[in-house]
């Protein structure tokens, strides 16, 4: 996980977010401590703490004094909302801009999406079958 040149604290925060999104870290579950994260990833505890603090600021984790950090109620919904917004900004907005350039309307885009989805499904099913 820790290898792509991005700040380590961001990678720590993203790993915790992924655990929340995939359900392996449920709402109200205790999150790994900064010391556990630091030992597991072999990083400075202050770096792990910075990633955890980022999630506290986003209301994804909450601190329970004397007990530790826990996944906040509604954290998964918060993260899904962020991902949805990021997805739209990264993929949908440029798609719409290019569609306008090509003179494609909503119905054209829907047809293209449907066509590509069917193609991807056919490709996936043939890749999984024996040769």
Description:
This protein has 131 residues and is mainly alpha-helical. The protein has a two-stranded antiparallel sheet with strand order 1-2. It has helices spanning 8-21, 34-41, 45-57, 75-102, 106-127; strands at 61-64, 68-71.
Sheet of most strands: 2 strands, antiparallel
Average pLDDT reading: 93
How does the overall form come out from the CA principal axes?
Answer: elongated
Give the DSSP E fraction (strand runs of 2 or more residues): 5-15%
Question: Structural class, from helix and strand content?
Answer: mainly alpha
Q: Termini distance?
A: 34 Å
Low-confidence stretches: none
Number of strands: 2
The main sheet orders its strands as 1-2
Q: How helical, in percent, are the residues? A: 55-70%
Strand and helix order: HHHEEHH
Provide a count of the helices: 5
Radius of gyration: 20 Å
Helix and strand arrangement:
Layout: H1 8-21, H2 34-41, H3 45-57, E1 61-64, E2 68-71, H4 75-102, H5 106-127
Antiparallel strand pairs: 1-2
Q: Would you summarize the structure shown here?
A:
The chain has five helices and two strands, in the order H-H-H-E-E-H-H. It has helices spanning 8-21, 34-41, 45-57, 75-102, 106-127; strands at residues 61-64, 68-71.
Summary keywords:
131 residues; mainly alpha; two-stranded antiparallel ribbon; 2 strands; 65% helix; elongated
